[in-house]
User: Fold CCHC-type domain-containing protein from Quercus suber.
Amino acid sequence: MAEELKELWKKLTFTEDEGEDIELGSNSTRAAKEIGKNCVVMKILTQRTIILEALRKNLKMLWKPNKGVQISKIEEDLFLVEFGDGRDKKKVMEMCPWSYEKQLILMQEFEGEMVPKEIKLQWVPFWVQMYNLPLKSMTREARYEIGSKLGKVLEVDVAEKGVQWGKFLRVRIRIDVTRKLIRGKKVSIEGGESRWIFFKYERLPNFCYWCGMLDHGEKDCLEKKGDEPGRGEQMQYRAWMRSEPGRRPGRD
Assistant:
């Protein structure tokens, strides 16, 4: 409907009254911009209909804000979250990703310049664990170099000395959820033989075992091969890609 109206407006001939500009000054936006400092835009990555009251109740229990939180629907699948305190907002954002009914929640900072239907949410931070690397690669530099191939590196879990021993590397990366999850990468070190390293994602919610997308499960996948016996063996993605948040590798 919005796109149809947009095309219709392009063809309209405005009357003199309709063509007159209305200029809004800073007084008309001040209150929204001030409150917006404690707001985020949110989307649930699901194809199901979201019941607003159920969403409000669930997230209040999940986040336990000190000074309350208000959730308003601003588009069919887009919500505005208003925290009563900036510290609550900071805590929630730092603990991303979150999930609702096992579906990923997308959240980003309030953007007051944009019309709701123009806002696109597609990035979520995940802690990613990287396995099957030799000990000489347990460095800060290796974490950044590998992590940058998955998305924007936000943080690396490494000691001040630049080396962190353990079973895996751990990197916080901003992932593009419009793309398939990356299961691993081939890596060669100092010109040596290429080896396969595999990734696990902390707090990974539901995702499709057929295609690796986060916005649906295997039952709704268009790439699904059928329901005959043995078809499940053809799934290219598995539950092993999930990992629970844990202690930093190599630390008690």
About this structure: The chain has a mean pLDDT of 89. Residues 123-243 form one domain.
